[in-house]
Amino acid sequence: MISNSQYLEALLKNDTKIILAIYKNNFYKVKSFVLNNKGQEVDAEDVFQKALLQLAVRYKKEKFVINSSFDIYFFTVCKNLWRRELNKSKIKVTKDGVMELRDENEDIAMAILEQKRWELFSESLKLLSENCRLVLKLYFSKSSYSDIVEKLKYNSETVARQRVFKCKTKLKEIIKKDKRFKALHKL
């Protein structure tokens, strides 16, 4: 079995065998996600390539550690890149004409920054109690307060709202105390 660091090293060394394994294990998931979210197969291919490039560039610059499986991490990078593409396409045309598209290096840098923010958020979430993680998972997946009451056996929607508020507040505190927060917050 290939370790996370071996995957990252393979990207730097352009190891065809391991890169093909990454394609084999991950492309169908990325393609499915993109197709289900207003994209086409060519978009999935572009996102996949950008994700590989993003990971290689970031790993070359700073030898970071992936704390989940490589496949889960890679899929998250791809999802974030596709969401970013969807958001960019919304703002390309303005009343003054077409906005200038960002250069590729700036785009990679912004994607890396967003990935680092996502990592900080995910790591901070893990520091919460199991109950808070569950409450926020339901909240972030847009479950209604009545669903939260039902699933977590709370007494009322007011209790659910208070619990969501307290858990979100605790999560914000954890994120803001992290030494990475200031650097990631500036842009």
TrEMBL record:
<dbReference type="InterPro" id="IPR014284">
    <property type="entry name" value="RNA_pol_sigma-70_dom"/>
</dbReference>
<dbReference type="InterPro" id="IPR036388">
    <property type="entry name" value="WH-like_DNA-bd_sf"/>
</dbReference>
<dbReference type="InterPro" id="IPR013325">
    <property type="entry name" value="RNA_pol_sigma_r2"/>
</dbReference>
<protein>
    <recommendedName>
        <fullName>RNA polymerase sigma factor (Sigma-70 family)</fullName>
    </recommendedName>
</protein>
<dbReference type="InterPro" id="IPR013324">
    <property type="entry name" value="RNA_pol_sigma_r3/r4-like"/>
</dbReference>
